[in-house]
Amino acid sequence: MKRKRMFLLTCFLSIAGLMFAQNRSISGTVISEEDGQPVIGAYVIEAGSSNSNGTTTDINGRFTLNVRPGATLHISFMGMETVEVAAQNGMRVTMKNATKDLDEVMVVAYGTAKKSSFTGSAATVDNQKIAARPIANITKAIDGQVAGVQATSGGGQPGESAAIRIRGFGSINASSTPLYVVDGVPYDGNLAAINLAAINPNDIESMTILKDASAGALYGARGANGVVMITTKKGSKTPNVNLKISGGSSSRALKRYNTVNQKEYAELMFEALRNGYMFNNGYSWEDASQLSRQNLAGALGGEIYNPFKNYTWATLIDENGKVQADAVSAYDENWMDAIENKNALRQEYQLSVTGGSETTQSLLSLGYLKDEGVLKYTDFQRFSGRLNIDNQAKHWFRTGLNASFSHTIQNYSDYDGSSMANVWYTAQFLAPIYPVYTKDATGADILDASGNQQLDYGISRPQMSNFNCIGTLIDDKFDRKRDNFSGRSYITLGSDDEKAGALKGLKLNVNFGVDYVNNNQMVYYNMYHGNFASYGGILEKLNNRTFSYTFNQLLTYNRDFDKHSIDVLAGHEFYNYQFNRLYGEKSGLIDGIYEMEPATTTQGTGSYQYDYRIESYLSRLNYNYDEKYYASVSYRTDASSRFHKDYRWGNFWSVGANWRISQEEFMQDLEFVNNLAVRASYGSQGNDDLGTYYAWQSFYDLTWPNANNAGAIVNTLENKELSWEKNANLNIGLDARLFDRFDIGLEFYNKLTSDLLLSYPMALSTGFSGYDANVGRISNKGFEFTLGAQLVNTADFKWHATLMGSVLKNKVLELTSEAPELNYGTRVVKEGYEMYTFYMAKSAGVNPANGEQLYLIYEDGAEFFAGEDETPYIVTRDAQGNITDKRVAATYVTNDYSKAATHKWYQGSRIPKLNGAFNMNFEFLKSFDLSVNTAYSLGGKLYESNYRGLMEIQYAGNNFSKDVLRRWQKPGDVTDVPRFELNGQYTVNDRYLIDASYLSIKNITLGYTLPRRLTYKMGMANARVFCTADNLYLFSHLDGMDPQYNFTGGTDYTYTPTKTIAFGLDINF
Amino acid sequence: MKKYFAYILALAAALNFASCNQELLETSPTDQASGSGMFANANAALVPLNGIYRLMYTQGWSTTDNTQQCDGLTAWNLCADVMGDDCVMAATGNGWYWYDCIYNVKARYTSSAWRSYDLWNGFYKLIANANYIIAAGPTMEGDPADVNYVVGQAYAIRAYCYHMLASYFSRPYLAANPADQANRLREKCVPIYTEPTGAGTPGKPRASIAAVYTQVRKDIDTAVIMLQTAPKQKHKTHIDYAVANGLKARICLTTGDWAAAETAAKAAQTGYAIGDAATITSGMNSLKNSNVMWGAEVITDQTPGWGPILYHMDGLSMLALGTQNYGFAAPKCINLELLAKMSATDARQAWWLSPADAIAKYMAADAETAAAFTTTVGVNYIQDKFRFSDASQGLGDKMWMRVEEMYLTEAEAICRQGGRDAEAQAVLMKVMEKRDPAYTCAKTGTALGAQTNNWTGSLLEEILIQRRIELWGEFGRLFDVRRLGQGITRTAAQGWPTDALINSSRDINDPNTWAWVLTIPQAEFDGNASLDQLVDQNPTLLKGQPDDLSAIYVSDDAE
Q1: How many angstroms separate the Cα of A55 from the Cα of each of A45, A46, A93, B283?
Q2: Do residues A58 and A40 touch, judged by C-beta distance below 8 A?
Q3: Beta strand pairing status for A863-865 and A227-232?
């Protein structure tokens, strides 16, 4: 036995020796087709060699290699098309630049598809457009890249996500967020957009946005809002080491709101008090002025807050209501300056290594990011690692694992809205007379023993008294530490190899994907000041664990028969989501210890779990005849645990076709047509994401104990019939490429959402504002275009431009018979109108006699008709409700704010008339590359409540907009800003509806690729330095306003968006 | 060739394409329970009953914002206090309760953050929860006495809620001018629901004041009868026989049923003792005191994180912790004119501190705080009646009914019936002998001034003066003003700051005023097809009468 083995080994070695003996050395040169220059550092590998026999080209493009006779060489270089050529001594190999492949392969639902053969609507954002951006969360890279997608700014908190809407707004109470799918598996349910910060954007190969039913129906119950498919980079057998380092800094992207200075503020406050006494308490001008001077000190917190130390508050304002000309301010401190991190640094390091063999491809990627926020004490850090291995052990057996782990740490500010501790409210809008740091009677700083300035906690300050929001910003701590694990594994049995014979093309794929997020959150309120000082501080710890997996078994069959090609898929899938929360809260803390152990008093503890499961069967058939005619049909049925068992299963399907006209005989003479195709698809998708996982059931909420007695209150009403929201989706598209230079993509879609998951309104007096039901229909119709042109294409200068845009017509078709209008404060959802149409009083200017706000109202009982928003009608109806007479209602002007509140007008919505992007890419002298990415939005309005807060002051101590300086001051003044009062009574009106149009320079990136001769000497294959500016500038109608704050057209006191300028180095070895 | 095909088939079979276990799709939350099991027996039904009481002292659940001033019953009472004449807010502070105080909330009915929504949503949510218990009564298992204990309380809760809704959303039951009484009772009040709410239960129209009080009487009488045979109070939040009678007494005062008020008030007194001076000056924060009939026990992990109600009342005792709270920034003070009615020997003098006394007691060592306090409080006497039991934990029980109120109610009810002044004086003395050793009362008669500060010297007025002092800051002074047919005149001399002198812009000196009637929240109109906003909304005009009052009358009221 042993001898036999020895014999075999000896034979083997002899044969190997023979083989080596027969090898011969060849040499050759590799040159670039474009410029005839040598390609330096290209990989030259003998194909099929057991020991990866290979070398790289030298500075002259030359290589020498020992090869077997008749060997084939495999020559590759980044950015160029791989060449396979027979080995010959003295050979000269020409490599072409890799051009954008017309037939690029896209990742789509449960597989891939060639773009030309695809029957649905999808767009791809490739790695280059993502990797260039200095962003922490990839959702921020989508805006301005794909027609038909709208995005929010997402705010400036490092790590936060932007929200995405694909093709309009179809849901009211159900989620409108697209489904995020990472490497073929839905990512973490509805929390996906947040958790995407766990993914290193550098690891992403591409994102595909699935927009229509043909593309997305295979995601069934969760596909109605479109799908964002994120594909991470794959391993490769070519050895490569990539190192990327970048650093930069962030600052505010938006200007600040324009607010008044100290003098203007004092004058306005004097005037506000005087007007109050005159118009509300009936004093004469003189008496009111007198009283106002007298009470100014009281209203503003006493002389300590009078920055003009050479006057008292009572003497500061002269006869004309102006600050005395010789008044001198002792200090002028800006709270926003005090909270801004002027030097918010960003640093990112990224190492990725690929390599492998014929059978195994691998990728290893490591990354570190630290991104500081423009608000002090906020930042985001990510440590990420990814390992991806694919192994084709046998021609019929393939397996792989893609595992990523990341740890993120986010320090954030937990305060929002008009809470005093929210610096985006208080520091942003505190009156300029209030110093950040304590001042003595002369206005000089009161320093502590160490000579430091001390924060002013303002006992008598009328706004934020005994409080300093900067103090809470410094001393309160909020952080989230997330551990994220994502694993995607698969086993494929079956083969495309001829060896499989009749079974060629039949495969079984078993996929298991898991996402695990462990979020440790800390909320710490300090013990020295602020809301919990009296408690000795409060510490809350939350542990949220999210665990989800998708397990599917897919049988596929893919085969060509002559000119017919078919691709069949059938499978089963199970999705399981589990969320666990555990939290505790204690007070009476020990300084410097951010743990509950030493704290004295328990304030609360609790835990709970949510479960959500979906079971599905899915199938698809793709057919292709001669690369000319394509058809696809898909069907999926889902059962969601959110619904009652009798209403749980939903059916989702699509049909689609694509005709590549340019492949027809009759088109062959038209050489300038490189490609021409028309596509059409129709199908139905679903949406079950109602926020709650237990939508249909009636529940008592058990979290209402009465002291030590268990207590519960009724929470929801039962509705067994609750089921899917459905989305019927028609798409017609045209793709063309002409003169090998121009790309045209046109698409029309018509989406009809029906059986909306809606809170069916009930009278509040029934104890419920509504119950969940399937009611109503909403239509979204739209047109999208993407026009690309290679304007210049010479060796030394290339210029490519892309213009895209989309037009959306949104209309609420039907709600309920009882409630054809749903009210959301300043917005309504009303039949016949766009979703979230502004519904509010109409300003009729200001009464020149007394400065009152005037309103335009109409006759009582007037009605509006969809499409004629501006015209109220008086309608007469007969007994059957048919209109017998209709006349335009009279309108008149009134000062009665309560009448104005019941005579509101429909005034448009946030939805833009046209939005899109304009992007350009340049290349100069083969070394420089420049890309400019802009996004635009035309039309639509937003309700600027922040601005309103600066125009209609509620509290003495709040700052005013500069626009208040236009106010009415004395009889005869003609202006649009009413007389100034504290706490004036106004009905919300269209003065604060601002045109939401904007042009945003999203990104400019300039890169320089070092000459290959130089990089070769340095031992590098390729090196590029770049500078990138993200969120560079925004043109809008009002300084300070974020027109991309949300989709319904509002603003709030939130973290301002940031711009980032970064420099980087990208090296391949 | 075929071998791997066999593998495929084998694996496919193993994975079993057939359905997974369908039970996996039946999921339920862990922090909620299905409604059906809640009412099986009287013991189980205590859980939803306790839930209702918890709502009554939880901050913010009834509103979407401004949560600090929406603290349940105590907040709703304080709101009626600051709208009245006796609870002076010396400064704006950060605005909590201030807008109630200056009558600047009616126009905010479209918002779910303000008083209209808070009150409407709050009381109707309590009613809906009570309706489930009442409906389950006939099938509820257990000892009949235990069933009565649960269901009787639900009836009392419902009676109380409709009574409070009427007090906020319609004009007073008793018209100031008896000639208007018939019309007054026909005015629109609030929708009545007595059945459990299900998905799609339609909204009801506004019922008349008469119809609402018919329901209130029916419910409170049922409650009293059921609770008479029920076990004794298991927790201070629970409405037992005495508390139900106390609520009935309040209702009867509102409707002018003096004899019934007398009977109920007497019945309510059983088992409780009027607090002595030491008891009432200890901070009014303990349910253990023998004068407390009904209240909420606030335990550490159930205090709201932000600003419990005492944070808004008790501006002083927190100073020891180095904290100036909202009660400091917007001090609650007593009407100086009312304060002057109290004798120097009255133990209740300790409930209010002069600026100097407040500084001496709480700010002696802190000149800076004292200076700020002086600026804010001015000449006013800040309250020291309600104090935290443990300021560092935001602790302090809430008092919803004290037995003193029952004696004062009995005295008033007797006095109102005429010819029994001596009896009324005697009942009044039962309270006053514990308050003021020097107190005597020989006043007679029932004359009241047109305004609450027009003094007549009658016995009824004297009883009311003592009631105003005794129940300051806890009962909701406006509820009394409304039933007395008097108007309010706020003056600077009473201590009101300039901005709260709203007599010129709000006609609160007219007992028929609409200023005391809140607007119905927009959310009700949005979901109630039985209401027409143009017809059913309460007048929003604050000064003067609306042009056309026809809309506010129920045209043909069957009840």
Answers
A1: 7, 9, 15, 89
A2: yes
A3: unpaired
**Any chain B CB within 8 A of the CB of A704?**
yes
Q: Which residues of A touch B19 (CB under 8 A)?
A: 615
Residue B297 and residue A707: Cβ atoms within 8 Å?
A: yes
Q: Strand A179-182 to strand A227-232: parallel, antiparallel, or no bridges (unpaired)?
A: parallel
Length of chain B: 559
Please state the ipTM of this predicted complex. 0.91
**What is the enclosing helix (H) or strand (E) of A539?**
strand A538-561
Q: Give the closest of B128, B498, B504 to A767, CB-based.
A: B128
Task: Give the pLDDT band (50/70/90) at residue B556.
Answer: very low
Tell whether A484 is within 8 A of chain B (Cβ).
no
Q: Which of B190, B372, B526 shows the shortest C-beta gap to A761?
A: B526
Contacts of B534 in chain A (CB under 8 A): 860-861, 902
Q: Do B197 and A466 touch (CB under 8 A)?
A: no
SS (H, E, C) B404-445: HHHHHHHHHHHHHHCCCHHHHHHHHHHHHCCCCCCCCCCCCC
Checking A495-500 for CB contacts under 8 A at 24+ apart, the result is A495/A395, A495/A396, A495/B4, A496/A558, A497/A395, A497/A396, A499/A395, A499/B1, A500/A395, A500/A396, A500/B1, A500/B4
Per 3-state DSSP, chain B is made up of helix, strand and coil in percentages (nearest 5) of: 50, 5, 45
CB contact, 8 Å: A767 with chain B? Answer: yes
Query: For residue range A1033-1068, what is the model confidence (pLDDT) as tens digits?
Result: 999 999 999 999 999 999 999 999 999 999 999 998
Average pLDDT of chain B is 90
Q: Which amino acid is at B11?
A: L
Q: Do B204 and A302 touch (CB under 8 A)?
A: no
Q: Which residues of A touch B12 (CB under 8 A)?
A: 508, 553, 555
Integer Cα distance of A487 and A842 in angstroms? 56
pLDDT digits (tens, 9 = 90+) for A859-875: 888 889 887 777 899 99
Output helix, strand, coil percentages for chain A, rounded to the nearest 5: 15, 50, 35
- Is B50–A818 a contact, with Cβ atoms under 8 angstroms apart? no
Tell me if the pTM is above 0.90.
Answer: no
Segment A704-709 shows an average pLDDT of 91
The two three-digit tokens of residue A976, written as one number: 């649009």
B244, containing H or E segment = helix B241-255
**Rounded distance between C-alpha atoms, residue A250 and residue A1058, angstroms:** 6
Chain B residue numbers touching A574 (CB-CB < 8 A):
20
Residue B499: its chain A contacts at CB < 8 A? Answer: 276
Integer Cα distance of A526 and A472 in angstroms: 8
What pLDDT is stored for residue B362 in this prediction?
Answer: 94
Residues of B in contact with A901 (CB under 8 A): 107, 110, 540
* Rg of chain A (C-alpha set): 34
Q: Which residues of A touch B72 (CB under 8 A)?
A: none
> How many angstroms away from the CA of A238 is the closest CA of chain B?
30
d(CA A84, CA A46): 10
The number of beta carbons lying within 10 Å of the beta carbon of residue A125 is 21
Report the pLDDT value the prediction gives residue B32, as an integer from 0 to 100. Answer: 75
Interhelix angle B241-255/B144-169, rounded to 10 degrees, is 30
Percent of chain A with pLDDT over 70: 96
Closest-CA distance of chain B to residue A881, Å = 17
Q: Are A466 and A458 in contact (CB under 8 A)?
A: yes
pLDDT single digits (tens) B493-534: 999 998 888 877 788 999 999 999 999 998 899 889 899 887
DSSP B204: P
Contact A804, A787 (CB under 8 A): yes
Mark which residues 499-538 of B lie under 8 Å from A by CB.
Answer: 499, 501, 504-505, 521-524, 526-531, 533-534, 537
Beta bridge partners of A124: A208
